[in-house]
Design brief:
582 residues; alpha+beta; four-stranded mixed β-sheet
């Protein structure tokens, strides 16, 4: 159920002020009245349940058999079936489209384009993914992203990193709109430049004021200034948009809610639709005989015979072209494969948690200042210094034979900046190190060397945070000494890829070596930056359309066959609004 206005009466300052005059019940723990300034002013505002965010549909969770339930044609043995439980969540009804991405690029250009154009460059899809040495795909290189004929087609050429950044941006834009809608903020795009723009975290931490449409929500505490910003406890702002986990994506694609009754799965599914055929086999349906998804049917057959195109798509297709599954999700088979959150491990199926399985946790926390307050938001660009160093080395090795004197001098100077930044990081001078890298970017921009454009693009891909973002850090072992559930921040290698799970676990001298288990680059392409993508695409045979199949790619790479959609956590009742439960 969609609530176009959520808890509106709790937000308008005049109405909330009335709550001070009439109690909203009393505490079952202490007996004191809520919303009573004479009792200290602890507030209990009306709450109708989680609002369904733009573009999302509700997916009721449950248990299912995850993994390879069909023949393992690829012989990988990395997907053993196992029973897991997925909580209820929300998911985009369609893949993120080219037009959604152009909206994203427009916003970035408006906010950062003047001062930090490299931030805009970082977000641009790689349109060159369409090129094929033995095919003429230049029209897609030039037109697929920006021509209005393709505006409702899924965006491709987007890496896992870019997709994750889009999800964060979308969260902030949706929550900003909610605050504008509820009369707390003015819509003020002109004033949002560089670090002076809305993000959900900086707003909640009091580091973004914006242009207020009202004084705020009436604060009944006798020690307050009378009004306050919306808080997480008010239930107004939505949880973050994010990529779905592998388990969530597979569960949503199967949509067994259409094949179950009284806790029994009546018919097993091979695809996201009923039956074991790729065509619609319901003789009562007007689509009887039509292909159910956009995929490759055989050698050289992308769309069928002229006059009767069986899937009406040679590459991707408009996102609403095919019928949705029982959850209301379109294209969970075919069109494009889709990124999910998980880091790939071949043993995931054997050691995953039974509840909400996921591999890829890296636990972080907000940085605090010496007084225990949240540190000021970023007003500079954060770079991955190690990533830049590696990029310069690889680029220099590959281009060594063609480098001009200006080009070699530019690389040498950039390496000097990198060394200086590394020295500053060693003494925890993070801001100084990042400003040094900004100087390096300015050097590239001012250079006439032929390779300057390549270097600028390479630097842009190493941006990890932008002005206006909140400062986060990894949790430390020292602050988790008494915890039983975790100690370290990075749990990607936990029990599969770490020292303890390697064959060298008795050899202390090997503990600091990287890649002990998977030997990335020599015997495998698996490391901590390898991400899972699910589902078949327009260029895949029908085998990959089966939801249980899984593949992987480096998180910084992209392809003409891979897109994505966003998900959102469901908080509260697993059966949706209103109330629910027994």
């Amino acid at each position: 159920m969609r609530y176009d206005r959520i808890a509106t009466l709790t937000l308008l300052a005049a109405t909330v002020a009335l709550l001070s005059a009439c109690s909203s019940g009393s505490s079952g723990a202490t007996g004191w009245n809520y919303n009573d300034g004479t009792n200290g002013g602890f507030q209990r505002l009306p709450y109708l349940g989680q609002e369904t965010g733009p573009g999302l549909v509700f997916v009721q969770g449950g248990t299912f058999t995850m993994g390879q339930v069909e023949d393992d044609l690829m012989g990988t043995w990395d997907n053993v079936p196992r029973r897991v439980t997925v909580s209820s969540f929300y998911m985009d009804e369609v893949e993120v489209t080219n037009f959604y991405w152009l909206e994203y690029l427009h916003w970035l250009s408006r906010v950062y384009g003047s001062s930090y154009p490299e931030i805009v460059d970082r977000a641009k899809p790689d349109t060159l993914v369409w090129r094929n040495p033995r095919a003429y795909n230049e029209p897609y290189v030039n037109y697929y992203l920006r021509h209005p004929s393709f505006r409702d087609y899924p965006v491709v050429g987007v890496s896992w990193l870019q997709a994750s950044e889009f999800c964060e941006w979308r969260t902030d834009r949706v929550n900003e709109r909610i605050l504008v809608r509820e009369g707390l903020l003015e819509h003020n795009p002109e004033g949002q430049i560089d670090d002076e723009h809305f993000t959900t975290s900086t707003y909640l931490d009091g580091q973004y004021e914006g242009q207020k449409a009202a004084e705020g929500i009436r604060d009944l505490s006798p020690n307050s200034g009378g009004f306050r910003n919306a808080a997480l406890t008010d239930g107004i702002l939505l949880p973050s948009y994010r990529l779905p986990t592998e388990a969530e994506w597979e569960y949503a694609a199967l949509s067994l809610i259409g094949n179950s009754g009284e806790e029994l799965i009546t018919d097993r599914r091979t695809y996201p639709w009923n039956g074991h055929y790729v065509r619609n086999d319901d003789s009562r349906n007007k689509l009887y005989g039509d292909i159910n998804a956009n995929f490759m049917r055989g050698r050289g057959d992308n769309m069928g015979v002229a006059g009767a195109l069986n899937d009406n798509a040679d590459i991707t297709s408009p996102v609403y072209q095919y019928a949705p599954n029982e959850y209301g999700l379109y294209n969970m088979a075919g069109n494009v494969s889709e990124w999910v959150m998980d880091v790939y491990r071949p043993n995931t199926s054997q050691d995953a948690a039974e509840f909400r399985p996921f591999r890829g946790n890296n636990f972080t926390t907000k940085q605090l200042d010496s007084e225990g307050n949240v540190a000021d938001k970023l007003d500079f660009v954060m770079y991955d210094i190690a990533g830049i160093k590696n990029f310069l080395q690889l680029y220099s090795d590959a281009a060594q034979a063609t480098l001009t004197t200006d080009g070699q001098n530019l690389i040498d100077n950039l390496n000097t900046y990198v060394t200086q930044s590394e020295d500053e990081l060693k003494v925890k001078q993070v801001e100084g190190a990042m400003l040094r890298m900004q100087d390096a970017m300015d050097l590239i921009v001012g250079s006439d060397a032929p390779i300057a454009s390549d270097l600028r693009t390479g630097f842009a891909k190493q941006i990890t945070a932008v002005p206006g973002d909140q400062k986060y850090r990894d949790v430390t072992v020292e602050e988790n000494l008494n915890r039983r559930n975790y100690r370290v921040a990075d749990n990607i290698d936990y029990a599969d890829g770490d020292f303890q799970s390697s064959i060298f676990f008795l050899d202390d001298e090997m503990e600091d070596e990287d890649g002990l288990v998977y030997n990335y680059g020599n015997t495998s392409l698996v490391n901590d930056q390898t991400r899972v993508y699910k589902g078949g695409s327009w260029a895949d045979r029908v085998y990959w359309v089966i939801p249980g199949t899984r593949r992987y790619m480096d998180e910084a790479q992209s392809d003409a066959t891979i897109g994505f959609r966003c998900a959102m956590t469901r908080v509260g009742s697993p059966v949706g609004n209103p109330g629910g439960g027994r």
